[in-house]
Amino acid sequence: MKTLIKNAQIFDGTGSPRYPSDVLIEGKRIVQIAHAIDSSVAEADAVIDATGATLMPGLIDGHTHLGLGSTVEYRSPRTEPEETQVMIIGHNARVMLDHGYTSIYSGGNRRPKVEVALRDAVKDGWMPGPRIRAASWEVSADTMKAPSATLNPGSPNEHRGAYDRPAITQKVRDFVHEMADVGVDIVKMPLTGESALVEYTSRILEFQEEEVAAAGIAARERGIWLTAHAHSSEGIQMALRHGFRVIYHVSYMDDETIEMAARLAEPVFIAPSPGSLWMMGNMDKPPTPGMEVEEATQSLRQVVPKLVKAGIHVVPGSDYGFGFNPIGLNAKDLELFVDWFGMTPSESLRCATEVGGHLMGMSEELGLVKEGYLADLLIVEGDPTDDVSILQDKANLSMIMKDGELYKLAGHRSPTRHRGAVAV
Ligand SMILES: [Zn+2]
After folding, report:
1. Residues, Cβ < 5 Å to ion ligand 1
2. What is the whole-number distance in angstroms between the Cα of residue 18 and the centre of ligand 1?
């Protein structure tokens, strides 16, 4: 199967300005990018005219919870029977794909076995969804149980502080191994508390140094990645010392910690997660002072431009999946990267494409419109490098292609030439 996309303005994911070109896709990959590719010479099965639109890489999200249940189509009361909860995870994946997200690096799932199964089903091609790096649920130091037994535990975090209790190093180690046995790609740990869940706790340390060190060793032994939820410099530094690959939130990251992150031999990825702060700050019911939404917002707006200046990888994703912050609104992050952090729209888009390819561990084949790369592609009506907010309306996505297969194609972009069947 060969698909030729003609007359596109290409945003290639690197942050460079758009340029006009045609793109030929064969099987899963982009095989040619050139001016005026002749459909007969190229033996194209289908030709899609993208005149007036932008062709760009599929979006990549670094911090979404497929297991939390809420999307723009369905708001979960979190009381569904178990069977429904399992189906919701699949529903969430489909909604992500509908909004142009062709890859996600999971932020954690209460049912890691289901997320692993979903990852594999998507990979095998019989379930619609983004490609997934599957994660464990995050468990607090006090609830180190099998995640399936802690479904809806109320608050996932207990907040006595890490050093007010005996060390549970062996439990942490066992948890990492248990999750590796389940088949996750990522183990998630909340190294600090979360004021949005339990007031005034975002700067409280949840784990002791030796526990985090044990997690680092176990993860390296098993060849899986670690993600930290961490708001304070103390928690972030602990993550950096023990080889965590991804850090979420970083609201109060100080200059010393930014320098430490910039000096690492292996790059760290940071998802500052502005979307959840924005949503909490704009709810009908204003946040309580103890949720520290205003403090975190003001601080984060100072932190992220420094991260960018220091050359640290920043990726979008903001705890999407909560009722107040449902899946499907993910692209709000890209607008906040511009409005809050001072990026240009192209810089913001690069975080969700080229940097996202690195985040997925697939930088040699994912996240760019480039010959040889996987054909995860969007046709966007309009110019997101001028106004990145247009990506928030899925009606502006007239084509969604993943692995060279058309998932969506709007009627007015119907192929003009068929040699074989076009799978839509
Ligand atoms: Zn999260």
Report:
1. 107, 319
2. 33
